[in-house]
Amino acid sequence: MSEKSVSSTAFTVLQGLLYVGLYSSHKYLVSEETRINAQKILSMSQEGAKRLSQCNSALYHKVADVQEWA
After folding, report:
1. CA distance 53 to 57
2. Cut 0.85: pTM above it
């Protein structure tokens, strides 16, 4: 991986942290600072912005809820 490329895994981790911090029943595990930083990092790139909008969609919430119980 080059210095300027971003790992898909990194986006997935940030998206997961943000989802848990905002919408999960376990949101107390993610600090406000972590949520804010995850949003900032995701908003800084095209792929990150896409992940950020996914995280805010109702469909993503349903999928994440199912995955959480799987």
Report:
1. 6
2. no
Report the percentage of the chain scoring pLDDT > 70: 79
Where do the structural domains in the chain lie, given as residue ranges? 8-69
d(CA 36, CA 53): 15
Asked if residue 16 lies in contact with residue 26, where contact means CB atoms within 8 angstroms, the answer is no
Render the chain in DSSP notation, one character per residue.
--TT---HHHHHHHHHHHHHHHHSTTGGGS-HHHHHHHHHHHHTSHHHHHHHHHHTSHHHHHHHHHHHH-
Tell me the two tokens of residue 62: 């349903």
Cβ-based burial of 35 (10 A; exposed 0-12, middle 13-18, buried ≥19): middle
CB 14 within 8 A of CB 48: yes
